[in-house]
Specification:
There is one protein chain. With 456 residues, this protein is of the alpha/beta class. It folds into two domains: 232 residues, 3-Layer(aba) Sandwich (Aldehyde Dehydrogenase, Chain A, domain 1), CATH 3.40.605.10; 188 residues, Aldehyde Dehydrogenase, Chain A, domain 2 (3-Layer(aba) Sandwich), CATH 3.40.309.10. Helices cover 41% and strands 18% of the residues. It is globular, with a radius of gyration of 25 Å. The structure holds nicotinamide-adenine-dinucleotide. Nicotinamide-adenine-dinucleotide binds next to helix 7 and helix 8. The site of nicotinamide-adenine-dinucleotide (NAD) has 27 residues, from helix 7 and helix 8.
Length: 456
């Protein structure tokens, strides 16, 4: 047996002994996680900074704070969530009591990427613990400082029979996938998502896949250009564009394109100054291979803003490219960096047609004051989730579930959806011994007319 198999076996025994199920235990685990975050926020922010110079403000706002918020929401609602839910009976089963129990899957595996290295590991963990599971976490090898601190703190705060962290990359991840987990929650690329699903299929292990893709952002002529530019620049360049739901590309109506380019310039300067390399508030690229992949796009189209880079720091300036077409290399795959190409359209139908040529995106953003256009886009385009007149801020509301569709993944989490994702819904019908209607029993002779009355 491998070391990981031993860990899982310990978690399996802990779970089958029923120890994770009492609500008091779940609350205790959630409070432990909250304490871990509160007591070590500085260490965590320092580790994320070491990985890719992410400003502590962003780490607190988009990672630590979000997880604390999620924990508080779960703590406030868990008693309600775990109660059995009564549902009406049906005519054929009258009289009976019918209800749905939620039960934890058991031992879950959470595999996370590097781009929000704390949040994407621990936010699913909140759902897993609230639902009464044990968890093995596999953070990314690319965010090595953050993964190391998570490993250290989880070992310090949690019983390994409840939560355990495995450090490593493909090899370790593959070894974990070979084991018999009851649920796999994966966040990462579409390419690796396919591998996860194939492996899980061999054991029929249920999965949630939180994947990526090219998320469009439409700017239509009725939008307030100044406010739209600020919100787009913020959502694109926070974390240096290394955000799964960042606007990947802009579709700007031709009538306002020039004015909008001007507003984007103003917004970038407003947020990061005339030389963003000197700004303390601007993140770097995670590693050299991503830096090389991204800088190869800088000559696509016409440079509207930025375009500078520095390999010694893995710095790429907030960049906007004009006159980009679908034939440019930058439009072939998810960008996942601080480069924002602009494509244009004349009528909203053309923008919709361009998006419909692609796989279903994780997010879509629309900037407009026109309700008919809003209705049309929402009706005609399928995507994971999104925002009207803002970007990525929808993730800050735990009442909105988060997840993809088609190639951007399936399943969802955040708030109650996290609890549901990590729970099996067990439907129960209960009858008494007093009434036993004979209709269903053979001989059926002459009874079909009663069936026809019931199913009329
Ligand atoms: P990735 O798919 O390369 O890696 C994710 C995780 O999978 C890592 O822990 C990695 O070690 C592991 N892994 C990699 N190859 C593997 C293999 N062959 N077998 C088993 N495990 C393997 O993703 P990444 O580069 O870390 O993250 C970027 C991607 O994640 C982007 O596509 C982005 O859109 C997506 N993403 C999606 C969300 C979301 O919530 N939908 C959030 C963040 C990132």
């Amino acid at each position: 047996m491998t070391k990981y198999a031993d860990v899982l076996e310990a978690q399996r025994q802990f779970f089958v002994a029923g120890k994770t199920k009492p609500v008091s235990f779940r609350i205790e685990q959630l409070n432990t996680l909250k304490q871990l975050l509160k007591n070590h926020d500085k260490e965590i922010m320092d580790a994320v900074y070491k990985d890719f110079k992410k400003p502590p403000f962003e780490t607190y706002g988009t990672e630590i704070g979000l997880i604390i918020n999620e924990i508080n929401f779960a703590l406030r609602n868990i008693e309600k969530w775990i109660k059995p839910k009564s549902v009406p009976t049906s005519l054929v089963n009258f009289p009976s009591k019918n209800y749905i129990l939620t039960e934890p899957y058991g031992n879950v595996l959470i595999i996370a990427p590097w781009n929000y290295p704390v949040q994407l590991c621990l936010l699913p963990l909140v759902g897993a613990l609230a639902a009464g599971n044990t968890a093995v976490l596999k953070p990314s090898e690319l965010s090595e400082h953050t993964s190391a601190i998570l490993h250290k703190l989880i070992a310090q705060y949690f019983d390994p029979s409840v939560v355990y962290t495995v450090l490593g990359g493909v090899e370790e991840s593959s070894a974990l996938l070979d084991l018999n987990f009851n649920y796999i929650f994966f966040t990462g690329s579409t390419r690796v998502g396919k591998i996860i699903m194939q492996t899980a299929a061999k054991k029929l292990t249920p999965v949630t896949l939180e994947l990526g893709g090219k998320s469009p952002c439409i700017v239509e002529e009725s939008a307030d250009l100044e406010v739209s530019a600020k919100r787009i620049v913020w959502g694109k360049f926070v974390n240096a564009g290394q955000t799964c739901v960042a606007p990947d590309y802009l579709l700007v109506q031709e009538s306002i394109r020039e004015d909008f380019e001007h507003e984007l310039r103003q917004a970038v300067e407003h947020l990061y100054g005339s030389d963003p390399s000197q700004s303390d508030d601007y993140t770097r690229i995670i590693n050299d291979s991503h830096f090389d992949r991204l800088t190869a796009f800088l000559d696509n189209g016409r440079t509207v803003i930025g375009g500078e880079s520095d390999s010694s720091e893995r710095y790429i300036a907030p960049t906007v490219l004009g006159d980009v077409t679908w034939d440019h290399p930058i439009m072939q795959d998810e960008i996942f960096g601080p480069i924002l190409p602009i494509l244009s359209f004349n009528h909203i139908d053309e923008a919709i047609a361009q998006i419909l040529q692609t796989t279903r995106p994780l997010a879509l953003y629309l900037f407009t004051s026109d309700d008919d256009i809003e209705k049309k886009v929402l009706e005609q385009v399928s995507f994971g989730g999104g925002a009207i007149n803002d970007t990525i801020a929808q993730l800050g509301n735990h009442h909105l579930s988060f997840g993809g569709v088609g190639a951007s993944g399936f399943g969802s989490y955040h708030g109650k959806a996290s609890f549901d994702s990590f729970s099996h819904q067990k439907s129960i019908m209960k009858k008494n011994f007093l009434v036993d209607i004979p209709l269903r029993y053979a001989p059926y002779d002459g009874k079909i007319k009663w069936l026809k009355t019931i199913f009329r």
